Fold this protein.
Amino acid sequence: MSDIAATTAHEAYAFACMRCGYGWEQAYEIEHHVDASQHAYVVYKANGERVPSPLSTPTCANCGGHVVRIMRSGRVSTVQQLLRNPHRVQEPVPPEPAAGPVAATAAPAGEHHWHLSDLLHPFQRR
């Protein structure tokens, strides 16, 4: 199949797996082609190799899951940077104690258990 016209665009996306919480970013070269029969088609390349469209059915490289959220680039790297520098993250202010007996279930000071919701919180719209 010979091309009559081809243009290349560069796009980058951030991905977060809703199954395991793994996040990653990937840059793509998107080649827009028109063949001799005037049919348009698109070729995606990542790191110089042809790959399927990241917008069709992305697969988590960590767990193989297909429930993957696609975001603009920079979202995952920002969260990863915050996780590497936890002193820059402000802890939420605990609510005032309620009247009456309340069972204490908090983790010991300095210990924090991360949950998927903690990792995805920066991705939520405000």
In short: The helical segments are 75-84, 116-120. The radius of gyration is 22 Å.
